[in-house]
Amino acid sequence: MSEADTLLLKQGKKKRQTGVFLNEFYQAYKAIADKGYTIDFATPTGKKATIDQESLDDDYWKIKPKMKKEAIDFWENSYAFSNPMTLEKAIKQKDEYIGLVIPGGQGLMVDLIYDKNTPELLKSFARDQKAIGLICHAPALITSIPKNENPFAGYTFNSVTPFEEFYIEKFIMKGKPKNRKIAKQLKKLGLEYEKGGPGKSFAIRDRNLVTSQNPYSGDIFNQLFLNLLE
Question: What GO CC terms are in its UniProt record (predicted)?
Fold first, then answer.
């Protein structure tokens, strides 16, 4: 997960609170945990992940409104969530894991996308054909791998759509961040892009990679990722 808490907009002239999108994280976490899998948490330096305050809006929980309180309680009180390992340690322990999930939120566009451990984790899990789940903005992390080393070339992926990026920037954040146009960047690396309608549930699986579009895509992402884990 990202541990960033501030996003710069308008060429660094405006600051906005950011972090991990709570429902994107918690819906995936609960679905996997409920199947009996053991889950470890990791952030760049081992600092507790910040939650994007935008993700507390009831609109993002309208499909599962009762889960919001449960998710907030987990975020505030879970010892494991509050004490993640570092990404460096996660790499050292990578052979212990069968899957990797990175939830969305703009925070990862601040730290994970620049962290030297991010491409190493992704390349390692791809090389060993382990399950990889990237939610909403998280597919952008594939751009941290140089084109000549990128194991995902030729894969079909999904992510937050260009229209959704525009909508977020125009009406929610009211400013453009440095890192954007995720789909365009990934297509330049040789990946194929598929999308659903703006604000609609959409996720796809190609081989060992599951990617999803937005905070409303939790159920389909979980279904595809759990099938992949099995």
Answer: cytoplasm
